[in-house]
Amino acid sequence: MIQNRIDIVIEEATEIPDSMTAKVTLKIDNLEQKTPLLIDFAVDKNKFKTFEKKVYPVMKDVTVDGQRFTIEQIAVFPTQTEVSIRFDPANQKHVFDFDKLRLEDEKGETFAFWGNGVPVRDNGENGRVYHLESIYFVEPEKLILKADGIRAIDKDKLQIVIDAKAGTLTNVPNDRLTLTALRQVDDVVGMDFSLKVPPQDKHSYISLAYDLTDDVGNEYDSVQESSSSTDDESIQNYSMLFKRKTNKGTPTSYSFPLFSYPERLKGTFSVEVK
After folding, report:
1. Which of 3, 4, 50, 78 has its CB surrounded by the most CB atoms within 10 Å?
2. What is the CA radius of gyration of the chain?
3. For the chain, what are the domain ranges?
4. pTM of the complete model
5. In whole angstroms, what is the distance from residue 270 CA to residue 274 CA?
6. CATH fold of 54-153+264-272
7. pLDDT tens-digit profile, the chain (274 residues)
């Protein structure tokens, strides 16, 4: 018997309905059925209406490798814990993400992202909210926020620029990333990259980019992105496919901001937040 679950993320300002319908497409003997299965279920608001979020103000500044950020607060819900962090706009580096961001209580038990749903969301300018496992029903006496590493690069190296005629990179963070192919057919642009990763990233794949632009102002939709490894586990291959939505002329260059990259700050942090 195969069991699974569906996580539904609802914005705070959204009114929770009294009922919902799950639309499920089934496969029988690996053959997808044309008619989906519709499952209606009621939402029992009595189970959560008495639960109020718990907010722990923190407002502690952290500096790692010259980069400063502020842990603003910890908000705890029955379903998840939200850690609000704001990055100093004066930082020279752009922080992509934290390695194994987690809370640890006085017993050594850890609470990290549970693997389903949305791991992080933007929170205004220079702010993000990280979603971790809920500590609502645990109520620890002490909490420490930790991370094993911080992925970041210089802000002036965040933008990747490609010469559309030569098929070469003209702006790139370092020699970890190389362009192996550039395909331009009508309104479709395909790009292949090779990325050299450190040992801790050889089994982790990243999303290089979502937003492509060019020097004549065309707009693009991200159609597909795929990744694979080679026999040499330190080399990962990435392919991205974009479709042009506008026709403002033939570009001479493409560009996109990196969504992530396997470079890290020197050092990490461990801060008591409760």
Report:
1. 78
2. 22
3. 54-153+264-272, 159-257
4. 0.78
5. 12
6. Immunoglobulin-like (2.60.40)
7. 455 666 666 666 677 788 888 888 888 877 888 888 888 888 776 666 667 788 999 999 999 999 999 999 999 988 899 999 999 999 999 999 999 999 999 999 999 997 777 889 999 889 999 999 999 888 899 999 999 999 999 999 999 999 999 999 999 999 999 999 999 999 999 999 999 999 988 888 888 888 999 999 999 999 999 998 877 778 999 999 999 999 998 999 999 999 999 999 999 999 999 9
